[in-house]
Design a protein that fits this description.
- With 211 residues, this protein is an alpha/beta fold.
- It contains five helices and nine strands.
- The strands form three sheets. It has a four-stranded parallel beta sheet. A three-stranded parallel beta sheet has the order 1-2-3, with helices on one face.
- Helix 1 runs parallel beside helix 2.
- It is elongated.
- 37% of the residues are buried.
């Protein structure tokens, strides 16, 4: 077996371009390519790469992607982890199970306005924020609707509120900086890419290995 390594660039910015280079290579029968394995980050460039591989009839297997509706982009795309909708459902059900009245949703944004509009340049975060709010709309706690409050943050200047439970929608490399900079004591439910070695004494729940 032979493994050919390809790099989609920093934060997968060149994923679509690299896909264009890989497609003729994978279609060359003498190369005996079985599939494309990997892909990283649910971003527009990644979606474009998945669609291009699908149009070319190349099997693509994603090991960490969890973005919603990625499977609709290609009949030959296979995803090993659940979609963001599943991740959101677990967070909301945990809030209901523990009797929480409000779920504060924190996510990396471009400012600290407290807006409930997730950044449009990161489909992983955008999907999760939307999915948490959607799932919360159809669940109740002690007969009352579960409230959600969404906040954009940056580690240097944003501070969490005093809500019952916080859902932090964070990519792993930003988690430590966010937890150190927030300074809040409220219990947290962190939706993140994968478990980290330490979470600064704050209880977290790695509900998926999504991206």
């Amino acid at each position: 077996m032979r493994v050919t390594v390809a790099n989609g660039g920093s934060q997968m910015r060149s994923a679509a371009k690299v896909a264009g280079l890989l497609i003729p290579f994978a279609q060359d029968r003498e190369q005996h390519v079985a599939s494309i394995i990997g892909l990283d980050r649910t971003l527009t460039s990644t979606r474009e790469a998945i669609r291009a591989f699908g149009d070319a009839g190349i099997v693509t297997i994603a090991t960490t992607l969890s973005g919603d509706k990625l499977t609709e982009l290609s009949d030959s795309y296979f995803q090993l982890v659940p979609q963001d909708t599943r991740e959101a459902l677990i967070a909301v059900r945990y809030a209901a199970w523990t009797g929480r009245s409000q779920l504060d949703v924190y996510f990396p944004n471009r400012d600290c306005s407290g807006s409930n509009i997730a950044p449009d340049n990161d489909d992983y975060v955008h999907d999760l924020v939307s999915d948490v709010q959607t799932e919360a709309d159809v669940i109740s706690v002690h007969g009352q609707p579960l409230q959600t409050s969404a906040h954009g943050w940056t580690p240097a200047s944003c501070h969490p509120s005093d809500g019952d439970l916080q859902a932090n929608l964070v990519r792993e490399h930003r988690l430590s900086r966010h937890l150190q900079g927030s300074g809040a004591d409220a219990r947290r439910c962190v939706l993140r890419e994968r478990p980290t070695r330490q979470d600064h004494g704050i209880r977290t729940f790695p509900v998926s290995a999504g991206r």
